[in-house]
Design a protein that fits this description.
The complex is a heterotrimer.
Chain A lengths: L1 E5 L2 H4 L4 H13 L2 E5 L11 H4 L1 H17 L4 E3 L3 H16 L1 H11 L8 E3 L1 H7 L1 H6 L9 E4 L22 H8 L3 E2 L18 H17 L4 E4 L2 H9 L1 H8 L7 E3 H8 L17 H9 L13
Helix pairs in contact in A: 2-13, 4-5, 4-6, 5-6, 7-9, 10-12
Chain B lengths: L10 H10 L11 H5 L10 H9 L3 H5 L3 H4 L5 H5 L6 H14 L7 H17 L4 H11 L7 H9 L13 H11 L7 H8 L1
Chain C lengths: L1 H5 L9 E9 L2 E8 L14 H5 L3 E3 L8 E3 L1 E2 L11 E2 L17 H5 L12 E7 L2 E3 L3 E3 L2 H4 L11 E3 H8 L20 E8 L15 H15 L4 E6 L9 H10 L4 E4 L4 E5 L2 E8 L4 E7 L1 E6 L1 E3 L3 H8 L26 E3 L9 H19 L11 E3 L9 H5 L5 E6 L2 E6 L9 H5 L5 E3 L4 H22 L3
Parallel strand pairs in C: 8-19, 10-17, 11-12, 11-17, 12-13
Antiparallel strand pairs in C: 1-2, 2-7, 3-4, 5-6, 9-18, 14-15, 15-16, 20-23, 21-22
Helix pairs in contact in C: 5-6, 6-7
The chains are: A alpha/beta, B mainly alpha, C alpha/beta.
């Protein structure tokens, strides 16, 4: 069994618990293992790099070094912000031996730069065929607006596996699950998650723009792959509704949860009850959809 | 009046180049950064004006601007810049210079949030989401802000009141202590610190 | 075009391609492939009955897909000559389509001009001089500009599409409409510098013509659609020639065109509108327009096969594949290869008056050559000393102008410089292992003499000034 190092980051142990749950479920079903990086620390996003280059690098590199020490060659970081920070740290130390030495000194352990950082959607994309084969309850009739936000589309040095202006990884996944992937305008617009607490007015405005665009495209739900985007779009939705005097009622669902649903897993086990905007309508729509003939068995792994 | 003279006109550009590797003099003021910025409307100086001011050593205005703190680091500007300038990285650099030189923050809620965020990470090695929110709301004198949301999250089991902690907290403290010396990169600010 | 086609001193080869150019000034051997038009020009009367009879309809390249043409067609009404051509790649007869047309064109033609068996014709002809006027192409913006929709939005068009719509004989009969629903647009955004002045996505240079044609199109929009409002997003306005500035001011003052200084960052579809997100850097605010139609001024770039053409002609080009003039100030219409001249946008982006001026200058230069029975050349050219030449022919390989041929001398093969082709660069003289080539005016003896002269003078001065 292929086993990846796993860096959940702070969110997946707190407000994004359901992302953690559903990723583990889906990886098990794909025959992929996940092992948490030993004694990991916060990657520092998004406050550290705003104030100190060294601190930002040191926090990220300690995580990578912990993985390297345990012999983990590849780590999966589901949080787009963590993913971006870790991969960027790799890029920076790879180019500057002096910097690597300095950072190694700060964190009190060596890092050779041998740990690859990957995002969970990348892994799904790689296993798209097996994923499609494991679908037992296609998400037929469901219209999904895939939202990538900033950090799953940019910068090019980090997200070198998708297009910056019109990324398609999640859309392809959504399609392979039997749902309809919508072409919409706000795939890569920033949701302002880092201001969700400090400048809520800005975050709420940006959230409203994104939700409005998804609604206009006819979405039943928005698919995300970043805990910050999810939290912001979900928790600030009611405020955005009040601000724009409208209703969106758009559940913000992790791509891993959609995978779980398509694999016929229990909604609760996937943490679908943990969102502020409930997914009941989506679940109703799914259960109302006719089950295709010759129901497929889950692929043995 | 911004005085232009041979001795100082390139100072800001040169500092940015030394610290970030980015050359702001490549900017030819097309304005695409401002056009695509999700928060340009909230800024007191637009992103293209920041680049221009950096070119002509309008450093005071840039370093005191809300712009550098309102930048979300979403990288839209960097991705689309026709001159291939990593504008988000320039903003990062300007923030650091601004802090090092002791400019007061025009966005205390944002800078305060960053401070509390880092304090939490320094203390536990990981972020304590609950503690951060409470402390932030107390700091901005709105203790009941988002209280309904918090109750909702709590009932859904999404808040871990104790938060996660790193075992090797000594090391985390050391990382913070050692890295804080980043200010030494800036000769001007060392002098200020020494004073 | 019509006038030129009727001039007794001009032979026009349309639907033809120059395949090979050999020789040198006054003596070019050119091979031209006259492609099989499948219609005999001598018989065709230009009645267009064959075109009407043809059932095969395909998108028209001339109208950039806004309109259609037949498989047998003339590209546009004023095309010269007024003789149709069969596009064999789409013709039902040639593609052996299951949909039969029964050779409708052949049957329709009373003059029996349609000839399906016609083959390409090769013409070999000698010419004294060549003027290269191969024109330009437009930047393939769809690949580079995902933020403008990358071609996904029907109502984001290029200025050339807009130009086609303005034409009375064009695909929309002169009406400006949205390609998506045929409705007249109200808010129309013109975006300049799409692909130009963009090092990361296109070319760094300014395309030179867009400021003026955009102003013209914005004015004509208002002439065509009374209720329309034009917005022009520009970076810098370049209206530098006679009356140009006044023209742009007229667009702003008399036609109410809103000029907004800032590059557009993104275009996205919102219901049936296109949201254009830009900035007004003069006001220091981001701005948005909910537009009905967006017109892109795409960059002027060289033809896709410009490099191949340059190679065939042995003329240099720059890093963008624009052909290089012999001297940027003093010889702007000549290539460095003698007898080959440049005109128009193959050399640099330029507008119509400049292209006409350049073409006129090139024609005058050609006449300067052709009106004399002998060529007057710079005397500094290379010369082979046949006695010393070992016949290794290294010089023929290094000459950048293909100016060295071989001749028989005393039973041996030796190098020989064609005086009219040689540009006097000296590469051959420097390369020749036997020192058999000299550059006239720059022989070793002459150069040494020049070096020695000042020393001799110094020596004299030192001797003269030395104390007795």
């Amino acid at each position: 069994m292929m086993e990846y190092g796993y860096y959940p980051g702070c969110s997946l142990h707190g407000t994004a618990k359901e992302f953690d749950l559903s990723i583990k479920e889906s990886f098990t079903s794909l025959g992929l293992g996940l092992k948490e990086v030993e004694d990991w620390n916060c990657c520092g996003a998004s406050s550290a790099h705003e104030t100190s280059e060294e601190l930002a690098l040191a926090l990220a590199v300690r995580i990578l070094s912990q993985a390297e020490k345990a012999g983990q060659k590849t780590i999966v970081a589901p949080c787009a912000a963590c993913y971006s920070r870790l991969k960027m740290a790799n890029v920076e130390v790879a180019h500057d031996a002096g910097l690597r030495k300095r950072i190694s000194h700060i964190i009190g352990q060596d890092y050779q730069g041998n740990v690859a950082v990957r995002h969970v959607t990348e892994i799904y994309k790689e296993n798209k065929d097996r994923l499609a084969a494991s679908v037992t309850k296609p998400l037929a009739g469901l219209k999904i607006a895939s939202y990538y936000g900033c950090l799953l589309a940019r910068p090019k040095a980090v997200v070198d596996w998708d297009d910056a202006e019109n990324p398609t990884t999640m859309d392809e996944l959504v399609t392979s699950l039997g749902a309809q992937a919508l072409d919409w305008s706000h795939k890569t617009e920033c949701c302002g998650a880092s201001f969700s607490i400090s400048r809520g007015d800005i975050a709420v405005r940006l959230v409203g723009d994104i939700l409005g665009a998804a609604k206009l495209a006819g979405a039943d739900a928005i698919a995300v792959a970043c805990p910050l985007c999810q939290a912001n779009l979900d928790m600030r939705q009611s405020a955005a509704e009040r601000r724009n005097k409208t209703t969106y009622k758009l559940p913000i669902i992790y791509i891993s949860q959609l995978i779980g649903l398509a694999q016929g897993k229990d909604a609760k086990a996937l943490g679908l009850d943990k969102h502020m905007v409930g997914a009941e309508k989506v679940l109703e729509k799914l259960s109302a959809a006719p089950i295709p003939h010759g129901e497929k068995k889950p692929v043995a792994v | 009046m911004l005085q232009l003279n041979a001795e100082t006109v390139h100072t800001c550009r040169d500092t940015i180049k030394r610290l970030s590797g980015e050359d702001v003099s490549r900017c030819f003021q097309c304005g695409k950064c401002t056009a695509g910025c999700p928060v340009a409307i909230d800024m007191d100086v637009t992103p293209n004006q920041v680049m221009r001011l950096a070119q002509i050593n309008g450093r005071e205005r840039v370093l005191a601007s809300s712009t550098i703190w309102l930048c979300l680091s979403c990288e839209t500007c960097s991705t689309r810049c026709p001159a291939d300038i990593d504008i988000a990285k320039v903003m990062d650099t300007l923030r650091k210079i601004s802090v090092a030189e002791g400019y007061p923050s025009p966005e205390p809620a944002i800078t305060g949030f960053h401070r509390l965020f880092l304090a939490s990470v320094e203390k536990y090695g990981r972020l304590n989401e609950l503690e951060l929110s409470i402390k932030h709301n107390l700091a901005i004198m709105k203790p009941t802000k988002d209280i309904r949301l918090a109750v909702g999250l709590f009932s859904k089991g999404k808040i871990n009141p104790f938060g996660g902690k790193v075992k090797d907290r000594e090391r985390v403290k050391k990382i913070f202590a050692e890295s804080q010396r980043f200010v030494k990169v800036y000769p001007e600010s060392i002098e200020r610190e020494a004073e | 075009m019509v006038e030129s086609s009727k001039d007794k001193n001009i032979t026009m080869h349309t639907y033809s391609e120059v395949e090979q150019v050999k020789g040198y000034v006054g003596n070019f051997d050119v091979r031209i492939r006259k492609k099989a038009r499948s219609v005999e020009m001598s018989k065709c009367t230009g009645c267009q009955v064959c075109v009407e009879a043809c059932p095969q309809v395909v998108p028209s390249e001339w109208d950039l897909g806004l309109g259609t043409r037949k498989a047998i067609y003339t590209p546009f009404v004023q095309a010269v000559p007024n003789v149709p051509v069969i596009d064999r790649s789409v013709c039902r007869i040639f593609t052996k389509s299951k949909e039969k047309c029964g050779a409708a064109c052949v049957r329709a033609c009373a003059a029996k001009a349609v000839n399906l068996k016609q083959e390409d014709e090769i013409i070999n002809e000698k010419f004294g001089a060549i003027v290269v006027a191969t024109g330009y192409s437009l930047h393939p913006w769809q690949k580079a500009y995902g933020e403008y929709g990358g071609g996904r939005y029907k109502d984001v068009i290029t200025a050339l599409h807009f130009e086609r719509m303005l034409q009375a004989s064009g695909p929309t009969s002169g009406h400006v409409v949205r390609p998506s629903d045929g409705k007249e647009p109200k808010n129309v955004v013109f975006i300049q510098c799409v692909g130009s002045r963009d090092e990361s996505k296109g070319v760094p240079y300014c395309s030179g013509i867009c400021c003026m044609y955009t102003a013209k199109q914005a004015i004509l929009l208002k002439e065509h659609c009374q209720d329309a409002q034009a917005y022009v997003f520009y970076i810098d306005l370049r209206a530098t020639k006679k009356n140009y500035e006044q023209f742009v001011l007229r667009a702003q003052r008399d036609y109410g065109v809103i000029y907004t200084r800032g590059r557009v960052s993104k275009i996205y579809q919102k219901s049936d509108k296109l949201v254009v997100r830009g900035a007004d850097t003069l006001a220091g605010v981001p701005v948005e327009v909910e537009a009905d139609l967006v017109v892109l001024a795409t960059a002027v770039v060289p033809q896709p096969d410009a490099v191949a053409v340059a190679r065939m002609l042995a003329i240099p080009h720059d890093q963008f594949a624009l052909f290089t003039e012999a001297h940027p100030k003093l010889r702007p219409v000549e290539s460095v290869t003698r007898g080959i001249f440049l005109a128009g946008t193959c050399q640099s982006p330029m507008d119509i008056p400049e292209s006409v001026a350049m073409a006129s200058a090139a024609a005058a230069k050609v006449m300067g050559i052709l009106s004399h029975s002998e060529l007057m050349l710079e005397p500094t050219i290379a010369e082979v000393n046949a006695e010393r030449c070992s016949g290794c022919l290294t010089c023929t390989k290094v000459c950048p102008f293909d100016a060295i041929t071989t001749v028989a001398y005393d039973g041996r093969t030796v190098s020989n410089v064609i005086a009219s082709v040689c540009q006097g660069c000296g590469t051959c003289a420097a390369t020749c292992p036997a020192s058999a080539i000299i550059l006239k005016g720059f022989t070793n003896e002459e150069i040494y003499a020049q070096i020695e002269a000042p020393f001799k003078r110094m020596e004299k001065e030192v001797t003269a000034g030395a104390p007795a």
